[in-house]
Structures are given as structure tokens and as C-alpha cells.
Amino acid sequence: MFIYKKDIPLQDLGDGVGRRVLAHGGTMMAVEVSFETGAIGPMHNHVHEQLTYVLSGRFRFTIGEETHEVSAGDTLYKKPYIMHGCVCLEKGVLLDTFTPQRQDFL
């Protein structure tokens, strides 16, 4: 499967957050999430394992009881059902990988 970013419109999630569902199949899914400065990824949890790679920008992430600032090149792991969320400190883009796929995003 080849996925070209130019062919996937940015889905406006409101409040400075946008999403593009990239390649997905089997039990995996890649999703690009764009944040404007000050945008919030509210605290939530889900059944999926999630890896987040910071492509650009700066974020304050909370995973469980820990809160840290991250920037381009940093990676985060979220185990199933752990509470997590972020605040964008400097406009940026995240690449999220989920397993299993987020059917609610399709």
C-alpha cells in the first residue's frame, strides 16, 4: 500500500487540531496529527497500544502520572487503557501508530 499525503485531506478536529489517517491495514495504523500552539489533546484512554513520534514542535505530554516536555525526534509509548493527553507549546506535528487499528478513525 502506498499512501500520498497530498491525497489525504486534513480533517479539522477543531480548536487547532487536525488529523490525517495514513497507511493502515492488518492490525496497524499510522495517523498524522497537527497542533497549533496552545491546542490541547484532552486526557483520554483507549484499548490500543500507541507510539507517538514528534515530527516537529514542542509538547507537554502526560502519560499516567508522569508529565514531560517533548520535541522533534522524541518518542512516547502509551500502553492500553493508560490515561494520556498533551498541550502543544509550539506548533507541531505528531505521528501516531496504533495497534489494533482505530476503527473510530476510519
Automatic annotation (TrEMBL):
Positions of the Cupin type-2 domain: 32-90
What organism does the record attribute this protein to? Rahnella laticis
Q: Which PANTHER family match?
A: H2HPP ISOMERASE
| InterPro entries assigned to the protein according to its UniProt record, in alphabetical order | Bacilysin_H2HPP_isomerase, Cupin_2, KdgF, RmlC-like_jellyroll, RmlC_Cupin_sf
Pfam families tied to this protein: Cupin_2
Q: What is this protein called?
A: Cupin domain-containing protein
